[in-house]
Design goal:
Blueprint lengths: L3 E5 L3 H12 L4 E5 L5 H16 L5 E4 L10 E4 L15 H18 L4 E4 L4 H12 L6 E3 L2 H16 L6 E2 L2 E2 L7 E2 L5 E2 L2 E2 L6 H12 L1 H9 L6 H15 L4 E10 L5 E12 L2 E5 L6 H23 L2
Parallel strand pairs: 1-2, 1-4, 2-3, 4-5, 5-6
Antiparallel strand pairs: 7-10, 8-9, 10-11, 12-13, 13-14
Helix pairs in contact: 1-2, 1-8, 3-4, 5-6, 5-8
Bound molecules: adenosine-5-diphosphoribose (APR).
Length: 310
């Protein structure tokens, strides 16, 4: 295959993303982890599934960054996931150290790559990756909005008993309790959900979306969600690899858009071969704007807390 994607972290999210990328034959895949044997074992296992799944994707497992050289995209999933009772913010110190270290090694071998950050707390980890890589803002993108919107879409489909394919939804803001589901921009076959579902039910679904990650952490007990996060990261990678120019909600570094500056916040962006090719600015109502700014403040607090750490 012509293109190459490295996934850092061969845990639940990383290996599931590798599987999806491989089965879609989007690019050669390198899976890298700090634990010896795990990325090699998982890559070999995936390669042995290939004859049955009918793909010819080349998969490599590695512990050294030489193998990741010249990747077009690097998806960073390394770090620790949440356990019950933990907020994403509780991961801050550990994952900051990991993302800093990983990014340094990634950019040494793939100076032109586009980084898709998945590790939590997501928006803060985007700051770490951008600072450490010194990459331009269009090449550091956070995966959160696609996942949060997919959760909202799934709940809307369940509510109306219709195909998920009919549903578009938009969730903006940081990847935390303050995220902003936007019913006004969420539709079923083009019909705004506000025309089809009561405001009480919409609010209930928006709340369930905000707590979507927590609901799964509470059920799993030993880790956090990974099927949907992996799917979301791969949808972003696909839009970039195929230069599809999809509009997807992603964490992007804002410089004045939505009245926010110097911060990664989830907004709709166009993803193509250059990474973020456009930030879509929506005209928000006063309430929506207030909610987005509250969410940006929560991200800012995490970034400030991180700055105080060694
Ligand atoms: N370099 C490479 N890999 C690392 C490093 C490092 N410095 N530190 C940890 N890892 C690896 C771990 O060895 C593990 O295999 O990252 C992997 C993380 O996998 P899981 O523990 O299964 O976590 P996962 O569910 O995949 O979540 C990863 O994504 O959604 C977020 O909040 C989640 O921050 C978490 C991340």
């Amino acid at each position: 295959m012509n293109q190459k994607v490295t996934i850092v972290g061969a845990g639940n999210v990383g290996s599931t993303a590798a599987q999806r990328l491989a089965e879609k034959e989007l690019a050669d895949v390198v899976l890298i982890d700090i634990i010896e044997g795990v990325p090699q074992g998982k890559s070999l296992d995936l390669a042995q599934a290939a004859p049955i799944e009918k793909h010819d994707t080349h998969l490599t497992g590695a512990n050294a960054y030489e193998d990741t050289a010249n990747s077009d995209i690097v998806i960073i999933t390394a770090g620790i996931p949440r356990k019950p009772g933990m907020s994403r913010g509780d991961l801050l110190a550990t994952n900051k150290r990991i993302i800093k270290n990983v990014t340094k090694q990634v950019v040494q071998y793939s100076p032109n790559a586009i980084l898709i950050i998945v590790s939590n707390p997501l928006d803060a980890m985007c700051h770490v990756a951008m600072e450490e890589s010194c990459f331009p803002k269009h090449r550091v993108i956070g995966m959160a909005g696609v996942l949060d919107s997919a959760r909202f879409r799934a709940f809307i489909a369940m509510e109306l008993n219709v195909s998920v394919e009919n549903i578009h939804a938009l969730v903006l803001g940081g990847h935390g309790d303050t995220m902003v589901p936007l019913p006004r921009f969420s539709t079923v076959a083009g019909i705004p959900i506000t025309e089809l579902i009561s405001s009480e039910r919409i609010e209930a679904m928006a709340t369930r979306t905000r707590n979507g990650g927590l609901e799964i952490v509470s059920l799993l007990k030993t880790g956090s969600a990974y099927y949907a996060p992996a799917s979301a990261a791969v949808e972003m990678a696909e839009s970039i690899l195929k230069d599809k120019k999809k509009i997807l909600p992603c964490a992007a570094y804002l410089e004045g858009e939505y009245g926010i500056s110097g911060l990664f916040v989830g907004v709709p962006v166009k993803l193509g071969k250059n990474g973020i090719e456009q930030i879509i600015s929506l005209e928000l109502t006063a309430d929506e704007k207030k909610a987005l700014h509250r969410s940006a403040e929560a991200v800012q607090e995490l970034v400030n807390a991180m700055k105080k750490m060694a």
